[in-house]
Amino acid sequence: MTYIFGHKNPDTDTITSSISMENLEKKLGNSDVKAFKLGKINKETEFVLKYFGITEPETLEKIEEKADVILVDHNTFSQSIQGIEKANILKVIDHHCISEFTTKNPLFYLAMPVGCTQTIIYELYKTNKVEIEPKIAGLMVSAIISDTLLFKSPTCTQKDIEIANELAKIAGIDIESYGMEMLKAGTDLSDFTPEELINIDSKKIESNGVNIQVAQINTASIEDVLKGQADIENAINDFIKKNNINIFMLLITDIINSNSEAIVLGDKSEIAEKAFGKKIEENRIFLEGVVSRKKQVFPVLMENT
Amino acid sequence: MTYIFGHKNPDTDTITSSISMENLEKKLGNSDVKAFKLGKINKETEFVLKYFGITEPETLEKIEEKADVILVDHNTFSQSIQGIEKANILKVIDHHCISEFTTKNPLFYLAMPVGCTQTIIYELYKTNKVEIEPKIAGLMVSAIISDTLLFKSPTCTQKDIEIANELAKIAGIDIESYGMEMLKAGTDLSDFTPEELINIDSKKIESNGVNIQVAQINTASIEDVLKGQADIENAINDFIKKNNINIFMLLITDIINSNSEAIVLGDKSEIAEKAFGKKIEENRIFLEGVVSRKKQVFPVLMENT
Question: What is the ipTM of this complex?
């Protein structure tokens, strides 16, 4: 059996890419493949799977030695499953930079500098002349909408837009109205404790000895989220102490207007002031037009360490 | 400008893949790209370039910071150019395992578990619907013949064979007769000193604290090469001392009959006896049917350390 899975803290691209790769492999004659998830799915992904009537993948806790695996939407071992170092990686389909990736055997590796893994998987369907069913096309376009925030993120490429429109046609959806509905479904944060909220999508980098943690949540109303600012700050301060973080930013991203308000804490929080040329007030900083952590936040923070 | 190049100690696949990628990029509208080599070409490659009337690429010594590069036929930084760590890697096209590969930015990375990089580049021509000119097809089929020893190496896949036959048609060559002529051109070792001979194509691995070096040369007559065994042994013993090697094997591969005779030296040379279940006599061991260092030599040596 070949296990297909994306990264920990799964998002819509990671979950649906596992499913569309399982579908493609099966259509190419590899019947013994199965998509898995490495953790609880989020509200947005839940909306997408329900909308297109697709069952949620089972959870995989760890992987045995020499198991055959296909990685989607990630390559870094620390973001992957326990035991990945000793697995037999057959394929990787990904759109991230590559980080200390090592395999013992030659493999199939396809990465492209595009906004979403599903954009690459679409190319694989085309190359292999496999038709995409409407339901699978629905999952694929959802992932592109999710990763590019409906084409507003600077990570979005012309290819993502063209392919998303093509997939929307096959899926029979109106990309704008479906897209907003889907993104809004992902902004329902009512189930989360403050501790969970700051861990929904959180990434750490180290730059010149400074530990930088940037978490991100999407919302249709920044004001609503800020009603809980005091509790969120407590959760962040606990996290900072436990994990030895020097600057923690929680990006609260307004998906309607494509801006972010960030809560900034830590003994090196002045790095954010230098990076964005603004003062932090009430532990917050407003970032006009900022929606991409990868392109608009991490690089400027790193330059100012 | 985008620099395209393969690995150090270039072979026919590395040199011709740089040239066919330059050709493909230009046909796709990227005019500012150029193929380079990282060292002296071998006799086989010289024969190929002359046969198809293609000029040898210029040599590149090092690369400036942030230069745009495309890597073919390798990914490991130690096999690449000086300064590669700080270059901007745009694309990698390769058929090897991946070894501690790291980039700062997302990139295009295409690897496939096939016998030759040109097999993958052929797929890129197809995907992009670019026609392959006869001269370029000639270079491409030459690389497949070279890397698979005319389909006899266990690294050769069905895809390599199909694509090589397709390319031979475009190039207008008879694959068997041209292939033998080309491989024989590569066996002309008359220009090399013993020191150069053991460095033509030499790779090192470390396994459980044992330093293993395996060099390989192709010949149409093992006997002819062995006339110089005493001088070759002196060169190997010098290399062992300088580089702290525990077992050095020089595979002398008979490309007509697909066997190898190995000269084996070093304080751990008994590893080769265990690995192949035969005694070393006069510092030599005959390896029936062995032509691939990657598949038939390194793995069994490693298992016996």
Answer: 0.85
